[in-house]
From TrEMBL, chain A:
Keywords: Acyltransferase, Membrane, Transferase. This is Phospholipid/glycerol acyltransferase domain-containing protein. SUPFAM superfamilies: Glycerol-3-phosphate (1)-acyltransferase. The keyword Nucleus does not apply. Residues 140-269 form the Phospholipid/glycerol acyltransferase domain. It is found in: Membrane. One of its GO terms (biological process) is fatty acid metabolic process. It holds the Pfam family Acyltransferase. The keyword Chloroplast does not apply. GO terms for molecular function: glycerol-3-phosphate O-acyltransferase activity; glycerone-phosphate O-acyltransferase activity. Pathway: Phospholipid metabolism.
From TrEMBL, chain B:
Its main location: other. One of its GO terms (molecular function) is alkylglycerone-phosphate synthase activity. Pathway: Lipid metabolism; Glycerolipid metabolism; ether lipid biosynthesis. Gene3D superfamilies: 3.30.160.650, 3.30.465.10, 3.30.70.3450, Uridine Diphospho-n-acetylenolpyruvylglucosamine Reductase, domain 2. Signal peptide: none annotated. Residues 176-358 form the FAD-binding PCMH-type domain. This is Alkylglycerone-phosphate synthase. It comes from Pogonophryne albipinna. It catalyses: a long chain fatty alcohol + a 1-acylglycerone 3-phosphate = a 1-O-alkylglycerone 3-phosphate + a long-chain fatty acid + H(+). Belongs to the FAD-binding oxidoreductase/transferase type 4 family. It is found in: Peroxisome. Catalyzes the exchange of an acyl for a long-chain alkyl group and the formation of the ether bond in the biosynthesis of ether phospholipids.
Length: 681, 466
């Protein structure tokens, strides 16, 4: 089923060495010259030339919006004119106003900033060339992952440098509210989307018509983050389907022959806002996006952030991907311009595609040595890291071992090439030096960096100390997350082997599916691909010699213990965190929780458990994990969400939660799993 | 033929249908050339639509419509105490008016006598209706679907017939034959799918029922049928689902009756242009199932030209085309066995049909000919030159006289003077024999310029013949 995309990304791996540092050129020649270069892109050949004002007019006067305005007017009892006026206001707030002058200005500033921040920005030229080609043929959708604010303009910057039409970029509305910056972004092609718009029919209508019109007319490539938001944990986020659906509709309705999706993986050696993210996860609110905050943050410019990789994936044809997945006949019978509820088939297809895109982004991302080292550092007890430190030699040896494993599993590694032992250690020490904000190396040992309290007049309480350790651990965890997609499938199998203690393939598969199901908010799995995922896990473990796989059985080899225990330890923090929450939900008397209450209560419980030494993972403090658990339980129909007076409330089916917890801790043998509906999924 | 008719006979049905059209022509002002009488008329003013609150057809149709005749309960012809013919009700332009010439025409043409009366059976005698043969299993499952149904005698008898002469005559005499055992009122396409599925499962007969104006005996229940017969009344499926202003099509549920469809479309500035004489009561699904033709088909086409897409529920499943194109150059057209199938193949549930912007200008006119032959010759010439207006109809002398007989009493001296002058001009000046002359009625539609030009072309032809 998924062969189509396998072909396309398998091919990508071979071109690994094609990355070119675009900053090198900038360091040699004038930035001003770059900013004023003649920009002569080859646009989409079917594009109608159309100014931004024309675009807005086309949206407002579309039959779809007229129809919706009439319908909404009838529902709300206001006049059609009022509704249309409101729509006009929404569009004004939303729409981009791309101007080349502004791009040049941005280009100039970005050149300066990027050179200061990064030692190199590596772009794969092959991908860029393919993009240039496909942009002329069909409407193109650029789909980068979203790890940092830096993502935002880097694509436009590259497009400008290489004469590719400037994209329109979907951005969150808070950016628009920043003084000056909002306007600059708007003129650089950003359009702004409000959050939580599901219930606002008119807003939805205007946005979808706007997006569709861009795709349909092909006036510019559209760039949007399928993950919907910046990943706080540097891990891929379950894709959001709203915009994805709007983008696909012109194809479904036959308004365009094809749409080309370009997965783009942006990876950083070090993320600009690393500590902000960690604090946010601990419940300290993120600073509001404002211009003053941005200026204050300019001190981050003084640090070194290593290099950045932008990997343009192979263009993917929607037409090709959807073949056999969807019957577009259903769109024939209703006029294109009228709203139509997507059928279950369409929804499944869009969700599949969105997940697929995130997977391809993951596969295209380039991992540095730091991601591997983070995995290993996290597996050492936290107390060791803070108090006595991890021996440097042990860490480097393990890292080299892990590098081999990762390459076996097909990872793209950014490991500056060198022969022999010495350059490798150099690479690792420079990596550690780069991440001085998280770890430091003293006397042959590696320590976790604890935040310096500005004024240490009073002895710090254990809670405060814990928070500062937790922040460092979560930063480390984030970097580990960058490598998780490589290991997660074998790791699920390793965990299944560990918990079930069985060698029967079908039992392992059932448990594998169960784990996959529980954690599918945590890691990206393509819906319906569970057996492929299982096969892949078996194949990879067999490849590295950890298991023997036969028709019926999966048995652990003697040499495989090291690999398996590493993989299983990799997932352990997630399992522990989930179990803390499951137990909290089961043991409490109440059945209904308000969202805010729940989050604080779980955090307090985790803090307590960590301090008492019962829980070893600080990751249980991450609000991201808490939210994922809630979503997972909702997906598994054990928790139902309801809205009561501005707050989300959750009703818990304790028996069902307890059952999941029991399976997870191995209390229910895997033979029993066949009867559970989850396992079948 | 009964003299004191309450609007039951077939002939009167036809008369009433013609009324609206004829009055449009005959009441017109005199024009420069007095053989040609033209009248301007705003679209849609033929029937008074203000009485409509929402939709026309209730589930219990007998509450507003005659159970044994055409049309509404409150609208009928009768002879008042003075012995003058009168048209009752308030619905039409003619309503409440005295029609002085009708009695004379009646007696003259048919030799009818006011003394001879044969009143219709006033109310339905429930005893005459055979008790329903119910299929219990079907009934049980139908109940669980929540689709409304009834086996009330009045409901059943109402749906046992169309408007053929013999059908209405039998009802006037209180004779009721085999009637449906049950009536169901599906609310949407999916309801019909459920009903048909259940009917197949439990071996129940279905007879689709739209407006009930069929004159092809399509609604008659076979007398030898012993299984349960269920009449599927589509009257509650009467919504316009969407209007596509780009392609000028509308997607409509098949139960909508003509007047509602036209009125709702008019609100958005559109019309179908399909005006069969029965359009007050006949339904869209019925038009499709009986291959209906409309008065203005010269411009808009017959139902087969108007229909773009049909959804029909058959015992084998739902049949529909997978596109909205008006025609395809491949294969036989499935619409052509759906249209005219009289409900024998399935229930038409949703139809996409062409719509047009409402005509900017409408003009009525008529041409008088000395005899029928001349009239035919003129119409042939019009056909030959392919310049037929929206509607052109030639009435023979009998119909012309009947039309005259239906003229209401005029109050003003001036109007009656003009009428006299007109008659004088035609009979004395032109020398037409009143017992031979006949008239063609015309309706022009379109842009003002075009209509005037078209009108001139037709009248130029007519001048050679009349």
């Amino acid at each position: 089923m998924s062969n189509t995309y396998r072909d396309s990304c398998g091919a990508g791996l071979e071109n690994e060495e094609e990355f070119v540092d675009i900053l090198e050129e900038r360091r040699r020649s004038s930035d001003l010259g770059h900013a004023l270069r003649t920009f002569s892109p080859y646009p989409y050949k079917g594009a109608e030339s159309c100014s931004n004002a024309d675009l807005n007019k086309a949206v407002l006067e579309s039959q779809y919006l007229r129809y919706m305005a009439k319908e909404i007017a009838a529902e709300t009892g206001s006049s059609v004119e009022e509704v249309r006026e409101e729509a006009c206001g929404i569009l004004e707030e939303m729409s981009q106003n791309l101007q080349l002058k502004c791009i040049r200005l941005m280009g100039f500033t970005l050149s300066k900033v990027l050179k200061r921040l990064y030692s190199g920005i590596f772009v794969n030229m092959e991908g860029l060339n393919m993009l240039q080609q496909s942009i002329q043929e069909h409407p193109v959708i650029l789909m980068p992952n979203h790890r940092s604010y830096m993502d935002f303009l880097i694509i436009s910057y590259i497009m400008f440098t290489y004469d590719i039409p400037m994209p329109f970029i979907a951005a969150g509305i808070p950016l628009a509210r920043m003084k000056l910056v909002g306007e600059v972004l708007r003129r650089s092609g950003a359009f702004f989307i409000r959050r939580a718009i599901g219930s606002d029919k008119l807003y939805w209508a205007v946005l979808s018509e706007y997006v569709r019109t861009i795709v349909k007319t092909g006036i510019a490539p559209l760039e949007f983050y399928v993950e919907g938001l910046r990943s706080r944990t540097l891990k891929s986020v379950m894709p959001k389907l709203g915009i994805m659906h709007m983008v696909m509709e012109p194809f479904f309705k036959g308004e365009v022959y094809d749409i080309t999706l370009i997965p783009i993986s942006i990876s950083y050696d070090r993320v600009l806002e690393e500590s902000l993210l960690a604090h946010e996860l601990l419940g300290i609110p993120k600073p509001k996006e404002s211009t003053t905050a941005l200026l204050k943050a300019s001190k981050v410019l003084q640090e070194d952030y290593g290099s950045m990789h932008v990997n343009f994936g192979r263009p993917m044809s929607v037409r090709h991907l959807c073949e056999g997945k969807i019957n577009r006949c259903q769109y024939n019978l209703v006029p294109r311009d009228l709203p139509q509820k997507p059928s279950a088939e369409v929804q499944a297809c869009v969700s599949w595609l969105a997940n697929l895109m995130v997977r391809v982004q993951e596969e295209g991302s380039v991992m540095g040595p730091w991601a591997l080292m983070a995995c290993l550092l996290l597996q050492a007890p936290t107390i060791v890291l803070t108090e006595e430190g991890l021996p440097w030699q042990e860490l480097t040896d393990k890292t080299l071992w892990l590098r081999k494993l990762a390459l076996d599993f097909g990872a793209r590694l950014n490991w500056p090439s060198g022969q022999g032992q010495a350059p490798d250690t150099d690479v690792m020490s420079s990596t550690v030096a780069l991440h001085g904000s998280v770890v430091n190396r003293k006397a042959g040992r590696v320590f976790l960096v604890q935040e310096e309290e500005p004024a240490r007049n009073r002895p710090i309480s254990p809670e405060e100390e814990m928070i500062s350790t937790a922040a460092a651990v979560l930063m480390l965890a984030s970097y580990r997350n960058m490598s998780l997609h490589i290991f997660v499938r074998p790791a699920l199998l390793a965990t299944a082997l560990h918990i079930t203690k069985t060698t029967q393939k079908d039992e392992l598969f059932a448990f594998f599916c169960f784990l996959r199901d529980v954690f599918s908010n945590e890691f990206i799995f393509i819906p319906g691909n569970s057996s492929q995922d299982f096969e892949e896990a078996c194949f990879l473990l067999k490849k590295c010699g950890a298991v023997h796989v036969s028709e019926q059985e999966v048995t652990v080899s003697d040499a495989g213990l090291e690999v398996l225990s590493f993989l299983q330890a990799l997932l352990q923090p997630f399992i522990d965190s989930y179990q803390v929450i499951f137990r909290y939900l089961c043991e409490n008397e109440v059945h209904v929780y308000a969202e805010k209450q729940f989050l604080t209560a779980v955090r307090n419980l985790a803090t307590e458990l960590i301090l008492s030494g019962e829980l070893h993972t600080y990751e249980a403090l991450s609000s991201d994990t808490h939210k994922n658990v809630l979503s997972a339980l909702q997906r598994l129909d054990t928790v139902t969400k309801s809205r009561a007076s501005e707050q989300n409330e959750y009703t818990v089916n304790k028996a069902a939660v307890r059952r999941i917890d029991d399976i997870l801790s191995g209390k229910i043998p895997p033979q029993m799993l066949h009867t559970t509906p989850e396992a079948k999924l | 033929m009964a003299s004191n008719s309450s609007g039951g006979s077939d002939r009167q049905r036809v008369a009433q249908q013609r009324l609206r059209i004829i009055t449009g022509h005959l009441q017109g002002r005199e024009d420069g050339d007095s053989t040609i009488i033209a009248a301007e008329c705003k679209a849609g003013s033929q029937t008074d639509v203000s009485r409509e609150e929402g939709k026309t057809v209730p589930r219990r149709r007998q509450e507003i419509m005659k159970w044994n005749g055409w049309g509404y309960n409150d609208t009928k012809f009768l002879f008042n105490k003075k012995g003058q013919a009168e048209f009752t009700g308030k619905r039409y332009r003619l309503s409440g008016m005295i029609i002085p010439a009708l009695k004379e025409w009646f007696e003259g043409t048919f030799g009818a006598s006011m003394q001879h009366k044969s009143p219709a059976a006033p109310v339905l005698n429930s005893g005459a209706v055979q008790p329903p043969t119910l299929n219990e299993a079907f009934l049980e499952e139908l109940k669980s679907t929540g689709i409304p149904f009834s086996h009330d005698a009045e409901d059943r008898v109402f749906r046992a017939h169309g408007h053929c002469l013999h059908e209405i005559f039998a009802l006037r005499e209180g004779k009721v034959g085999r009637v449906p055992d049950m009536v169901v009122w599906p609310n949407c396409h999916d309801d019909v799918v459920k009903i048909v599925e259940l009917a197949c499962k439990h071996d129940v007969c279905l007879i689709p029922y739209g407006g009930g104006t069929s004159v092809s005996s399509g609604l008659e229940c076979p007398t030898e049928e012993t299984r349960c017969i269920v009449s599927v009344d589509t009257s509650q499926m009467n919504r316009i689902l969407w209007i596509d202003e780009k392609n000028l099509t509308a997607h409509v549920e098949a139960g909508i009756v003509g007047q509602d469809l036209e009125r709702l479309l008019n609100e958005s500035g559109y019309c179908t242009g399909h005006e069969p004489d029965s359009m007050e009561f006949s339904s869209l699904g019925g038009w499709v199932a009986t291959r209906a033709s409309g008065m203005k088909k010269n411009i808009y086409g017959n139902i087969e030209d108007l229909v773009v897409h049909v959804k029909m529920v058959t015992p084998q499943g739902v049949i529909e085309k997978s596109c909205r194109g008006p025609r395809m150059s491949t294969g036989p057209d499935i619409h052509h066995f759906i249209m005219g199938s009289e409900g024998t193949l399935g229930v038409v549930t949703e139809v996409t049909m062409k719509i047009r912007p409402m005509p900017e200008y409408q003009k009525y006119g008529s041409v008088v000919f000395p005899n029928f032959e001349q009239g035919v010759a003129c119409l042939r010439e019009v056909a030959k030159q392919r310049c037929a207006p929206a509607s052109i109809r030639l009435m023979d002398n009998e119909q012309f006289k009947f039309g005259h007989a239906l003229k209401p009493q005029v109050s003003s001296m001036f109007t009656s003077f003009l009428d006299g002058l007109k008659t004088f001009y035609i009979t004395k000046f032109k020398g037409f024999d009143p017992d031979r002359l006949c008239v063609a009625t015309l309706l022009f539609e379109g842009g003002r310029e075009k209509v005037l030009q078209h009108e001139k072309q037709v009248y130029d032809i007519a001048a050679k013949f009349g």
